[in-house]
Design brief:
alpha/beta; TIM Barrel; nine-stranded parallel sheet; 9 strands; globular
């Protein structure tokens, strides 16, 4: 599974040390680390910033996002871009945004929101080789019992009889071993490292620099085992 570490990470020196040779997730709403990501990461993916729009109650500018994707995706280590979505919107609103996407199925990844119908999930699996799963509605907090119950329904729908997904799955805000240790994701992202690597650590062996903290946090995620198949709802917690 590919672990995409959310950005931005500051200062630039810390971003270079932490992201070198890793994978990153760059948001349209916060592209400050883009140059570092393009130069030093194995690969990266582009986020449409819908979570920021949702939290800030801001107005999105999707045509500008389309232009930004067209420019950035020319870099050879760009994997994919998340198609614009409305997190708590209707299925009709999100279907319209998928239809509007101008860059094709090789670059674009549509979002299935956990509160949406399984019928929409089935439609997306027919047309798209990769789907992003986004926590929303009553299931907006990844890892809760209610969230896992909904994920169980989704996995039963989207996996074959042996528990293998029918398409590649990207977990938005799911870069946590207690999630990807059970759900067979192809990739996942989180800004947890970027948000927490600047907080104080105590103890005799606490890392002395922000970059070292980030490296420790990244390795903790990257060394955790991943699920290859769906085997049921929330086994033991791994993290």
């Amino acid at each position: 599974m590919i672990r995409y570490h959310g950005t931005p990470i500051t200062p630039t020196e810390a971003a270079v040390r932490v992201l070198r040779g890793r994978h990153a997730f760059v948001s349209f709403f916060a592209p400050e680390s883009l140059a570092t990501v393009c130069e030093f990461c194995q690969s990266f993916a582009l986020d449409n910033g819908a979570f920021s729009v949702w939290k800030r109650e801001a107005e999105p500018n999707w045509p500008k996002y389309y232009d930004w994707v067209a420019d950035v995706a020319r870099r050879p280590n760009c994997d994919f871009a998340i198609i614009p979505d409305v997190i708590d919107g209707t299925e009709e609103e999100n279907d319209a945004l998928v239809e509007e996407w101008p860059h094709g199925i090789d670059l674009g990844v549509p979002v299935f929101h956990l509160h949406e119908s399984l019928a929409r999930l089935r439609r997306l699996t027919i047309d798209w080789p990769r789907i992003a799963l986004g926590s929303s509605g009553h299931y907006d907090t990844p890892g809760t019992d209610q969230w896992w119950m909904r994920m169980s329904q989704i996995m039963e729908e989207i996996c074959d009889r042996d528990g293998y997904p029918l398409v590649k799955l990207h977990g938005l805000r799911m870069l946590n071993p207690s999630i990807f240790g059970h759900a067979p994701l192809s990739s996942a992202d989180s800004t947890h490292m970027a948000q927490k690597m600047g907080t104080p650590w105590s103890g005799q062996y606490a890392p002395r620099t922000k970059a070292t903290k980030g490296i420790v946090m990244a390795e903790r995620v990257e060394l955790a085992p991943t699920a290859l198949q769906w085997k049921g709802y929330k086994q033991e917690v791994l993290w």
